[in-house]
Amino acid sequence: MFAIKAEVSNPRARTFEFRAQKTMYGGKHIATGDTIFIFASENEGGPGLIARGVVTSATAIAKKRGLARQTPRVSITVRRTALAKRRLGRSELKPFSDWDDGQPETELNFKFYRQATNKIAGISAEVAAMLRSYF
Questions:
Q1: Cβ of 114: how many Cβ atoms within 10 Å?
Q2: Contact 39, 27 (CB under 8 A)
Q3: What pTM did the predictor assign?
Q4: How many Cα atoms within 13 Å fall on the side-chain side of residue 54?
Q5: CA 124, 125, 131 angle in degrees (round to 5)?
Q6: Residues 47-82 pLDDT 10s
Q7: Three-class secondary structure assignment of the chain
Q8: 59-62: long-range pairs with CB below 8 Å, 24+
Q9: Which tens digits make up the pLDDT trace of 106-125?
Q10: Average pLDDT over the chain, rounded to whole?
Q11: How distant is the alpha carbon of residue 83 from its chain centre?
């Protein structure tokens, strides 16, 4: 399972295209058919969790020559399967900052909000189960 935090221009779109997104925490392993939870980045005015979808295409971006250290990037297309019914964003996750407490909210806060960058991240089964309750 995966989650993405990115700029989303139309939160109610049926299809989302995310080009050359950074990947962290196993996000580079995303593939066609994977379920993904979409967070509209608050850095670009989004509300946080907006949708769940299925990846319809995933293409790794080749690394640039001459750069020693690069974050893997992937372009994906996602077909929306559900819209979030409750809010879940930075303000709801901020209290979960004890990185060793094992709570799914803490995992999301750590992966998405400890560093403000937009990214695709792998998530645990516990986080996926918690996120499903928002739909």
A1: 9
A2: no
A3: 0.94
A4: 4
A5: 95
A6: 999 999 999 999 999 888 877 777 899 999 999 999
A7: CEEEEECCCCCCCCEEEEEEEEEECCHHHCCCCCEEEEEECHHHCCCEEEEEEEEEEEEEECCCCCCCCCCCEEEEEEEEEEECCCCCCHHHHCCCCCCCCCCHHHHHHHHHHCCCCCEEEECCHHHHHHHHCCC
A8: 60/28, 61/20
A9: 999 999 998 889 999 999 99
A10: 95
A11: 15
Task: Tell me which amino acid residue 76 is.
Answer: I
Tokens of 33: 């058919």
Closest CA to 38 of 94, 77, 91: 77
**Polymer length in residues for the chain:** 135
Tokens of 53: 């979808």
